[in-house]
Amino acid sequence: MAKRTFSMLETFLIFLLVMMTAVTVALLSILFITSGTIENHKDSGFPDTQSSPATQSSPTTQSSLATQSSPTTQSSLATLGSTTTEGSTVTNGSTATQAPSVMSTPEPPLFQNFSGYHIGVGRADCTGQVADINLMGYSKTGQNARGILTRLYSRAFVMAEPDGLNRVVFVSVDIGMVSQRLRLEVLNRLQSKYGSLYRRDNVILSGTHTHSGPAGFFQYTVFVIASEGFSNRTFEYMVTGIVKSIEMAHKNMKPGKIFINKGIVEGAQINRSPSSYLQNPESERARYSSNTDKEMVVLRMEDLNGAELGLISWFAIHPVSMNNSNHLVNSDNMGYASYLFEQEKNKGYLPGQGPYVAAFASSNLGDVSPNILGPHCVNTGESCDNANSSCPIGGPSMCVATGPGEDMLHSTQIIGRILYQRAKELYASASQEVTGPLAAAHQWVNMTDVTVQLNSTHTAKTCKPALGYSFAAGTIDGFGGLNFTQGTTVGDPFWDTLRDQILGKPSEEIKECHKPKPILLHTGELTKPHPWHPDIVDVQIITIGSLAITAIPGEFTTMSGRRLREAVQTEFATHGMQNMTIVISGLCNVYTHYITTFEEYQAQRYEAASTIYGPHTLSAYIQLFRGLAKAIATDTVANLSRGPEPPFFKQLIASLIPNIVDRAPIGKTFGDVLQPAKPTYRVGEVAEVTFVGANPKNSAENQTHQTFLTVEKYEAASATWQIVHNDASWETRFYWHKGLVGHSNTTIQWHIPDTAQPGIYRIRYFGHNRKQEFLKPAVTLPFESTSAAFEVVTS
Ligand SMILES: *[C@@H]1O[C@H](CO)[C@@H](O)[C@H](O)[C@H]1NC(C)=O
Ligand SMILES: *[C@@H]1O[C@H](CO)[C@@H](O)[C@H](O)[C@H]1NC(C)=O
Ligand SMILES: *[C@@H]1O[C@H](CO)[C@@H](O)[C@H](O)[C@H]1NC(C)=O
Ligand SMILES: *[C@@H]1O[C@H](CO)[C@@H](O)[C@H](O)[C@H]1NC(C)=O
Ligand SMILES: *[C@@H]1O[C@H](CO)[C@@H](O)[C@H](O)[C@H]1NC(C)=O
Ligand SMILES: *[C@@H]1O[C@H](CO)[C@@H](O)[C@H](O)[C@H]1NC(C)=O
Ligand SMILES: *[C@@H]1O[C@H](CO)[C@@H](O)[C@H](O)[C@H]1NC(C)=O
Ligand SMILES: *[C@@H]1O[C@H](CO)[C@@H](O)[C@H](O)[C@H]1NC(C)=O
Ligand SMILES: *[C@@H]1O[C@H](CO)[C@@H](O)[C@H](O)[C@H]1NC(C)=O
Ligand SMILES: *[C@@H]1O[C@H](CO)[C@@H](O)[C@H](O)[C@H]1NC(C)=O
Ligand SMILES: *[C@@H]1O[C@H](CO)[C@@H](O)[C@H](O)[C@H]1NC(C)=O
Ligand SMILES: *[C@@H]1O[C@H](CO)[C@@H](O)[C@H](O)[C@H]1NC(C)=O
């Protein structure tokens, strides 16, 4: 180890790091010793042929299927006809492992006498806990949830061919990313409810990538550490919400039509690694006018009478308008666009309610920032738009990109509104109808072990996962804590030695494979208590007529997305499917960080250092997705191998934050007002009330209330209080202040808009307190409270 002297700060940080690591390792080992290791995911229900609903005989297939309940009937049904080609598994005559389809209520028959699709849309809350949990995205220690700005929703779209046989499901969820654990559990529940109707191949789950949602829903160790533990409470809440949104969509399917439109969105994004982008060949760059993808793709869904049902839009942008100093759970710029769209279409409904569903889904956003003023040094104000995102004074931690607004909330709204406005225009003028069959193809792939055919003479291999030095640098949207620099291509003996001491040495093989990435964490060789990163990854395409949605298990950069779209489109065309529109759907199914091009990889900025399967990751995905496209185009999906099943780890490390009983100050009870509202506010002011609080994570367990707060207006005519806002509203904020030994305060704010009607208002608080009586199990009990009435005046 090189001789080197340390500053006080460095020494302290090192001490802290070593201590934290030691504690973590100790805890992990204890848990590892006391728990089992791997339970292979029981997926007996995913059929070997997708033929169970394939009795093509009557328009009432659905309802007859719905009454099938015994395993024998089910499998005999399944063996009847292997007519559908939609499945993606090896054809294996035996369907004995198929679980019975359990459907409690008979489904209504689906009419077949129309052209178009049966379309169902659904939206359900999946917020999870809003306290005592880290926010997922920036990996910043201490960036935990302390309240809520907006709720998070799962938005589901089910589409079926007129005969109801082939169907596909697309779900966009307001979370950082879909984790493997989440997907496996959602598929399990769908299978026990619907049998083989909704499966690994025809259901896509995509995260919007908000960086302001709770963490804690992962099974691989890197993410469990970043989440500071697995949260069963949040996990259950999310799974329930996602499944519920699909159930709603399933139930309200009706004959309808889908229209597609595309258009350019200006002024919403910048490339946050432009020097990496410049590594791509000039001839390739010359074909594009921008270093980000500016095209938005919009689907408009309506029923046969032209009544509007929903919207899906895809656009490449990081939802990081809210920066890493935020502690309020919210859905960021993409969520704000959904909010505006749904509020407009669901007139008279509170946010999160009403039948119309508008999803703004993620795409190839890997190197795309919404902080369009670009990176500047916080200390000097000069630009730090350089290859290292580093400032002359203070280095990389001074280099931060900001949005167009006065503060992060304002920026979120500006960017969200741009997306909403453009989507609205494209939606209004969408006239090209999507027609044609639905299809789906899916495989599990061991991404550590893919041989890529580079050209006729050369092959290359993917690597076991590893993170490079520049991963720790973070980005201009949120720098890492330890003063690492982007663009680092040589390791530091100090950190290497520290790592070797704590985690062991990376093998020569993994070092060689990832070059020129200097490895900081050789996650692919770390297996305690569970593997640190996934080996098994999902690749998946669903097609709706001439639209192909590629489900990407991570974050593609701009150029990566372009290469994949082009390759997949060409593959389809080669096999007779001309003019397919290819959409990149980001953050799907399992999280594997970033995917850069081979050329971008050489520069080792953050995105490249986070390309965990090595320099040929993109080429491997292109090869795999081409395989899926070919299978769909040639009607040989049933011949695709299903691939190795992902593991399902039994025992995950739980959060170290204890669940303790809530306490109110002596002489007070939960919900008592500590700081009352003022008697009068003018529009534009902020009404604020502070209550004796209880930990809001309790409310994720016992969902007696659907909201933490309401703002209510007195209607003299009916002598009733009408709810005008809930906690999903952008006008309200719910702050939770944690005190000692179970004491806490809750502050509710209403940022009174200029458009508010003058009148008499009140604010209500809904919470749950944890209570434990001697020798009894803990319970979480609902309580509610109401502020004094106050007046709002216009001037
Ligand atoms: C088919 O499935 C059965 C039961 O799951 C299994 O024993 C058999 O090996 C499978 N055959 C092939 C060819 O995969
Ligand atoms: C399809 O059939 C149903 C039931 O017979 C009928 O109510 C509906 O109007 C028909 N739709 C069209 C588009 O013909
Ligand atoms: C997770 O939560 C669910 C539902 O609340 C519960 O049934 C289950 O036992 C919990 N699992 C663990 C490991 O605590
Ligand atoms: C971080 O590194 C830069 C040089 O790259 C240095 O100027 C700066 O002082 C360092 N910051 C801290 C907090 O150590
Ligand atoms: C985040 O944005 C706020 C403004 O809303 C700003 O004061 C703060 O410095 C920003 N923090 C970082 C780390 O960018
Ligand atoms: C993936 O492939 C590698 C290399 O063949 C192998 O060592 C590893 O066990 C595989 N992973 C899984 C989960 O099967
Ligand atoms: C194939 O790719 C390798 C590695 O990129 C390159 O060295 C070789 O020249 C290529 N061969 C042909 C025929 O393009
Ligand atoms: C800055 O980036 C360049 C590559 O663009 C790299 O060669 C250099 O080492 C980086 N500087 C630091 C301090 O990491
Ligand atoms: C594909 O699109 C081109 C241009 O839009 C059009 O000329 C051509 O006819 C289309 N081909 C098919 C098979 O639809
Ligand atoms: C697909 O599988 C079927 C049944 O195993 C076989 O007959 C057929 O030749 C296969 N097709 C291709 C293209 O491999
Ligand atoms: C709650 O509010 C009271 C009165 O405003 C204050 O004395 C107390 O310190 C606050 N507690 C916390 C945990 O913020
Ligand atoms: C949830 O609240 C209800 C009262 O609404 C209470 O009866 C029940 O015990 C609570 N459940 C839990 C798990 O604490």
From TrEMBL:
The residue ranges of the Neutral/alkaline non-lysosomal ceramidase N-terminal domain are 117-623
Tell me which Gene Ontology terms the entry assigns under biological process: ceramide biosynthetic process; ceramide catabolic process; lipid digestion; long-chain fatty acid biosynthetic process; sphingosine biosynthetic process
* Cofactor(s), names only, from the UniProt record: Zn(2+)
Domain Neutral/alkaline non-lysosomal ceramidase C-terminal as annotated: residue spans: 625-792
Enumerate composition-biased segments (Polar residues): 81-104
Spell out the residue ranges making up region: Disordered.
43-105
Determine if Amino-acid biosynthesis is one of this entry's keywords. no
Gene3D superfamilies named among the record's database cross-references: Neutral/alkaline non-lysosomal ceramidase, C-terminal domain
Where on this chain does Zn(2+) bind? H209, H318, E555, Y594
The GO terms describing molecular function are: metal ion binding; N-acylsphingosine amidohydrolase activity
Segments crossing the lipid bilayer: 12-33
Show the InterPro entries listed in the entry. Ceramidase_alk, NCDase_C_sf, NEUT/ALK_ceramidase_C, NEUT/ALK_ceramidase_N
One GO CC term on file: extracellular space
Ranges of Low complexity compositional bias? 49-80
Q: What's the domain of life for this entry?
A: Eukaryota
Q: What class of enzyme is it?
A: hydrolase
Identify which residues the record assigns to the active site: S369
Catalytic activity of the protein: an N-acylsphing-4-enine + H2O = sphing-4-enine + a fatty acid
Q: Per UniProt, which keywords does this protein have?
A: Hydrolase, Lipid metabolism, Membrane, Metal-binding, Sphingolipid metabolism, Transmembrane, Transmembrane helix, Zinc
Q: Relay the cofactor remark from the entry.
A: Binds 1 zinc ion per subunit.
PANTHER family registered for this protein in UniProt = CERAMIDASE, NEUTRAL CERAMIDASE
For this chain, the family text in UniProt reads: Belongs to the neutral ceramidase family.
Name of this chain's protein: Neutral ceramidase
Q: What is the lineage of its organism?
A: Eukaryota, Metazoa, Chordata, Craniata, Vertebrata
